[in-house]
Amino acid sequence: MSSVHFTETEDKLAVIDVLYRFAAGIDLRDGALLGSTFTEDAISDFRPAAAKAGFEYPVLQGRETIVSALSDSLQHFDTTHSVTNPRVCIDGDKATLEAIVEAQHVPRDDHSRHYLMKNRYDVELIRHDEAWLIQRATIDNVWRDGDPTVLTGV
């Protein structure tokens, strides 16, 4: 339990900020920033979005595993992630966040190719001390555009 009490608006903004930090951590290739968004035992499930894009991606469990896997799988890309339409529901020290995240992937050595994904994020967070952290994130794809082989490295 947190000893600091925030207003509902402050909590909602803090929850949304976690997803902004997540996106910035990926785009800036900043493992520490990315890692600061997850609980130690967090789960990241990209399977729904990956299946629609035509490839398999495992469920990732644990902060270090998630940061390492995302850093490794995206190391050959320039990416931009844009977060929109966040909806937050707070229940004590737990929160849910629904948002749309647009993710543009461009091979670092060939900017003439791209793969753009518009994804729906369903995120469960917990309050840890004075911060909100992602406990589970499930990512599903709404639509996509471009060359799907960009993501598979073909």
Q: Features of this protein?
A:
single chain; 154 residues; alpha+beta; Nuclear Transport Factor 2, Chain: A; 6-stranded mixed β-sheet; 6 strands; SnoaL-like; NTF2-like_dom_sf; SnoaL-like domain-containing protein
Averaged pLDDT: 94
Broad structural category: alpha+beta
Largest sheet: 6 strands, mixed
Q: Globular, elongated, flat, extended or rod-shaped: what is the shape?
A: globular
Rg, Cα atoms, Å: 16 Å
Number of domains: 1
Query: How is the largest sheet built, in terms of strand order?
Result: 2-1-6-5-4-3
Please identify the top-level CATH class: Alpha Beta
Q: In terms of quaternary structure, what is this?
A: single chain
Distance between the termini: 48 Å
Domain SnoaL-like: 8-137
Protein name: SnoaL-like domain-containing protein
Pfam families: SnoaL_4
Describe the structure.
This protein is an alpha+beta fold and 154 residues long. It has one domain: Nuclear Transport Factor 2, Chain: A (Roll), CATH 3.10.450. The protein is 31% helix and 45% strand. A six-stranded mixed β-sheet has the order 2-1-6-5-4-3. The longest helix has 20 residues. The radius of gyration is 16 Å and the shape is globular.
Write the layout of secondary structure elements.
Layout lengths: L7 H20 L3 H5 L2 E8 L1 H7 L6 E2 L1 H11 L3 E15 L2 E14 L7 E14 L2 E16 L2 H4 L2
Parallel strand pairs: 1-6
Antiparallel strand pairs: 1-2, 3-4, 4-5, 5-6
Short overview:
By secondary structure, the protein is α+β, with helices and mostly antiparallel strands. The chain has helices at residues 8-27, 31-35, 47-53, 63-73, 149-152; strands at residues 38-45, 60-61, 77-91, 94-107, 115-128, 131-146.
